[in-house]
Each structure stands twice: as structure tokens, then as C-alpha cells.
Amino acid sequence: MNFFGHALIARRNEATRGAVRSEFVLGSMLPDFASMLRTRPPGTTDAVVEAGLRFHHATDDAFHGSRAFLEFSGQASAFLARRGLSRGSARAVAHVGVELLLDAALVENSANEAYLSAIECALTVRMSDHIHWLNGDGKGRFTHLCHSLLARGPVSADTSPELIAERLRVILADRPRLALDDEGQSVVRDWAMSVRPTISAGAAALLVEVEQRL
Fold first, then answer.
1. Which sign, positive or negative, has the C-alpha torsion 171, 174, 178, 179?
2. Residue 76: count of CB within 10 angstroms of its CB
3. How many CB atoms are located within 10 Å of the residue 33 CB?
4. 42-83, pLDDT tens digit by residue?
5. Is the separation of the CB atoms in 213 and 112 below 8 Å?
6. Contact between 190 and 83 (Cβ < 8 Å)
7. CA dist., res. 188 & res. 131, Å (int)
């Protein structure tokens, strides 16, 4: 599940308990941010962030084992392989691409508010002192990422297949065995265009399944 999906489920979990804590939502996204930075997840001395980190891993287990995700990703791998993508590229696109399409399908104002509030929370001096990156430049790179995400703004429900394909090409660019060329990006665009209605129609049921598995 992508970081926005984690924010959405964390917010829903918090809402059942009362107030939504930005620190918890932030913790639920931190492992994905670490992956984006190509580094290990940070440590934290904040108990609520730590709870969010644990919730991230529980959510990933529930999501990756869900019937709906396995069906979506399996169908995607088959489509992409038939169109000529290598096995590794097809599997990577099927995994991450399904997550990106689910983000767009699950967008709601309350989730975007929780997501952006968590990013703003990460940039506060207090929270910066409670998040400890294991590499020397981790703090600065994370701060830059947070500012970039805030500048990008809310996640949109109108993400085009072209943008999905472009983002996947960027994500895989530094992995030579998985990277997409122009033809591969075109195949991914065609896949995203063909499957978006199906994923949009099944997103709500997938969300329910994941929450039931938590």
C-alpha cells in the first residue's frame, strides 16, 4: 500500500477511537517515505509515531494478503507480460501501479486533510527532534521530501493513466532490471487506462477487506 493509502486507513482507524492524531498518521507513512529516500525507516522517541509505525506494518500485512489486491496485481502482471514487459518489470508495475490507482480511487477530503496535516506535523521542530534517521543526511532529505509533497498538494482522484505511467517510470528508473523504456511506459499507460474502472469499482470493498484483516 502506498503512503497515501496508509494515511487513509490510519485516519479511519483513529476516527473510530476519537480524535485523529497527526503523529499516528505520520508514523503510518514513515516506512514508505524511507523507501522513497532509499534508506531504512527512522527510529522515534514519540510513542504515538511509534504506534503509527507498528500500524503501518500490520496494514501492509493485511493489504498484501487481501484477496482483492492479489487479484488486481495478478491480473496486472499477466496483462503486462503479454504486452512484452519483463517478468520483473511486470511484477513491480503490478504492485506499485495498483497501489497508485487505488490512491486515486480512494481519495476523500478527510484523508487528504489527515495526510497533509501529518506532513506539516513532520516539519515541526518538536517532531523533528523525535524522528531519528540512521544516515547522516536523512533528516535533510526527509525535510525536502515533505516540502515537495506539500507543494504537490492533495492527492487527486483524477490521476490520468499517462501520469501513472510516468510516475512508475520515475520510481523504477534507478533499478536497471526493472526500468521502463518508452515502449514499456506506453504499455503501462495502456494497462492503467484499461484497468482503472475495475480498480475504482473494487476499491471500497478492498478497503473493507483490509480493515477486517487488521
1. positive
2. 24
3. 20
4. 999 999 999 999 999 999 999 999 999 999 999 999 999 999
5. no
6. yes
7. 36
